[in-house]
Amino acid sequence: MILKILTTVMPWRIRRFLLQKWFGFEIDSTARIGMSWIFPKKLIMAANTRIDHFTVAVNLDLIQIDNNATIGRSNWITGFPTQTDASHFNHQLDRKAELILGASSAITKNHHLDCTNTIHIGKFSTIAGYDSQFLTHSINVIENIQDSAPIEIGDYTFVGTNCVVLGGAKLPSHSVLGAKSLLNKAFELEWKLYGGIPSKEISDIPKTAKYFSRTEGFVF
Questions:
Q1: Domain count of the fold of the chain
Q2: Which of 9, 32, 119, 167 is deepest in the core (most CB within 10 A)?
Q3: What pLDDT does residue 25 have?
Q4: pLDDT (0 to 100) of residue 6
Q5: Whole-model pTM?
Q6: Are 38 and 51 in contact (CB under 8 A)?
Q7: What CATH number is given to the structural domain containing 180?
Q8: Residue 52 is part of which domain span?
Q9: CA angle, 108 as apex, 102 and 113 as ends, to 5°?
């Protein structure tokens, strides 16, 4: 705990060195972490990646952030790591407590990501707005056990503000999830707008829409 506190208050150049030396993190020289508490078991940050101020990320096996991807400020990213003495999730031998963020994707701010199971966000995707919740675990009331399932957000997707995404859900590539929606199942059709409580297919998205052919993550 003392080492974690020391690394958090150090200037970035020193902090990056200590995070690599003391915790074995892999952080590219062009990557940067703001004043945040980022301590998964393993952290991989590729070129030009960023985690902004006041984000907390703990109790995960892995956070992996590909080139040019960003995590904004004040996000809460947590989970339940594997290979512990706890009895929770012992029936899920292949479970991984991971956040995988594809190239040029972005998580904006004030979101909650429960990575008890894997959350995979594809390249050039945006978790937009505020206050969305990604919840990979819950209580299985039939079996009376804690259970979990991964969440998959495809490439070139857009998740609107204040959404709830549950374990086992999938948003296909080249799709949009409308604001305040509940995504609680796996969809497969691309080029669709999904939305509602629970979400359903609402309309087609034209393949000429420029968001879905970006070569840079940042939207002007």
A1: 1
A2: 119
A3: 98
A4: 83
A5: 0.96
A6: yes
A7: 2.160.10.10
A8: 2-83+91-213
A9: 70
